[in-house]
Amino acid sequence: MVQKAKILLVDDRPENLLALEAILSALDQTLVRASSGEEALKALLTDDFAVILLDVQMPGMDGFETAAHIKRRERTRDIPIIFLTAINHGPHHTFRGYAAGAVDYISKPFDPWVLRAKVSVFVELYMKNCQLREQAALLRLQLEGGGKTPVGDKGEPAGLLAELSARLAAVEEQAEALSKQLDDESADAAAVATAAHLERKLTGLRRALDALEPGAGPGAASVPTQN
């Protein structure tokens, strides 16, 4: 079973949260509500999120301050933030949103189809990264075992290597399709950069896996760092 991604919705108005849930329910992911910046930061302490939809105008800790706290934490600094605002103070206001670490800045009322499409891109990138981490963990176990883990009848790791290679190939194929989709749709630069980073990590993992194949010779195959 594929675990669903979590999407954090932050807005002090219940009707806005309800509207976001209605728009994003078609993505079939886990939607988590937060009615304040403080509540959002508390949720981020325990759960991992694919993307955050953050209202700018909130009493107390506003969206800009909340984003600043998110970006200061090592655990959450790489989570994409999409700012939502009911007002538009011009380029300076928008620039402040990007400076706070947002990947996008959308003014209300927004097009539900556009918002859903933007969120779906970051959800898909998140899922690909989760798959990549799983493959890297399996490969790391194989490397730490010195390639001597009994798998087949003769105690050879060929079965595990074949399974890892097949799983990695599936992720590579999906990542390639996603990159082509981003190019075709002229997507946000942040999404394109994230996809490119994912492909680089996939390439490193593939090289490490190839180094374990019989006949590859002794070498220090290393698993790529997961950043």
From TrEMBL:
Record-listed 4-aspartylphosphate modification sites: 55
Domain (Response regulatory): residue spans on this chain: 6-123
Gene3D superfamilies found in the cross-reference section: 3.40.50.2300
InterPro entries referenced in this protein's UniProt entry, alphabetically: Bact_response_regulator (IPR050595), CheY-like_superfamily (IPR011006), Sig_transdc_resp-reg_receiver (IPR001789)
Pfam families linked to this entry: Response_reg (PF00072)
SMART domains for the chain: REC (SM00448)
The entry's keywords: Coiled coil, Phosphoprotein
Domain of life: Bacteria
Ranges in a coiled coil: 161-188
Protein name, UniProt field: Response regulator
Organism the protein comes from: Streptomyces polyasparticus
